Amino acid sequence: MYLSEIRLRGSAFDYCMTFDCCMTAVSPSKSSALHYQYESITTTKTPEQIFFTSKETSFMHFHPRWASCGLFLAVLIPLSGSSPVKSQGPVVEAQKVQVPDGWELVWNDEFNGKQLDFSKWEIEVNAFGGGNQELQIYTDREKNVRVEDGLLVLEAWRERTGIAGTERDYSSGRIRSKRRGEWKYGRFETRAKLPIGQGIWPAFWMLPSDEKYGTWAASGEIDILEFKGQETDTLWGTLHFGGAWPRNKFQGKTQKFEGTDFTKDFHVYGVEWEEGEVRWLLDGKVWNVQKEWTSENGEYPAPFNQPFHLVFNLAIGGGFVGEVAPSTEFPAKFLVDWVRVYQKK
């Protein structure tokens, strides 16, 4: 067992003891200690870093090069922002953020670093097609997912790419905040510029971190932003609910914004989610409100009464957008300036 001091600005935890696959964090302001069991391990491109995700939605940062010296330096960061899920530690660059009236900033990423912040995001790698007959394979390569010039870049390429024996004609990127950022209710916004082209499908959305009411879509899905690259003035905002597929249901709105081309400039896309109501926002103005949904396995407002996490992805093809046109230009870039999560004061 090893003891080391944690120095994390804004954290309530000052010391930790590390042993086997468990960690106990001792809080100086409380007589009790918190115990965490690891659920998964995420490695980064930096060999000095390994991130451990716990079942209690806590996060550990470990430098293995010091293990041979008998010293483990660990950082415990409480994840998630709303009751009953704990806050996620220090908010980066909060002093630069204009917070909407009546809200407080609880989590954000301004993408100002040199690489993706793995304490907040996981890169997903798969070729499942999202259940929508999509054509891309999601990779963790920098050409598909990176932070560059203050932006998150999800970039799709027309290229034959394979992973674990599965090949696709397109490669792209997808990230999520599962076990790193998850909230029940709040205001969720991103500033982004969308890609153009027939068959291009960028999305900013939310999924439940635990399938409390069953598999998709019984436990819900909140589509904050969906966009077809061939319809550059139109947005989709949708809720998915009901029962597990094929008994799933959905409800939402498609809105055409005359004179606006979402591929030309950055805009702020978001939702305000509270008990019994979800409101969609474009540049701070409400354009869609949903109050009615059902659940086969819970009472209203189920399934939208549990913690959800954030997802960004850039899909190619599939039932929603149709086939990719030969004229569609690649690479296609989904550019994200920032993402911010607020909760009511």
SSE order and pairing:
Blueprint: E1 2-5, E2 15-19, E3 22-26, E4 33-43, E5 50-54, E6 58-62, E7 74-78, E8 103-109, E9 122-123, E10 136-138, E11 145-148, E12 151-163, E13 166-172, E14 174-176, E15 182-183, E16 186-193, E17 200-208, E18 221-226, E19 234-242, E20 248-256, E21 267-274, E22 277-282, E23 285-290, E24 308-316, E25 332-344
Parallel strand pairs: 10-13
Antiparallel strand pairs: 1-2, 2-3, 3-4, 4-5, 5-6, 6-7, 8-25, 9-14, 11-12, 12-13, 12-25, 14-24, 15-24, 16-21, 16-25, 17-18, 17-24, 18-19, 19-20, 21-22, 22-23
CATH topology of the largest domain: Jelly Rolls
Number of helices: 0
Strand content: over 45%
End-to-end separation in angstroms reads: 41 Å
The oligomeric status of these chains comes to single chain
Low-confidence stretches: 1-90
* The CATH top-level class label of the largest domain: Mainly Beta
> What value does the Rg take, in angstroms?
21 Å
Mean pLDDT: 80
- In helices, the fraction of residues equals under 10%
Count the beta strands. Answer: 25
Number of domains: 2
Order of helices and strands: EEEEEEEEEEEEEEEEEEEEEEEEE
**CATH architecture assignment name of the largest domain:** Sandwich
Shape: globular
SSE class: mainly beta
Largest sheet: 10 strands, mixed
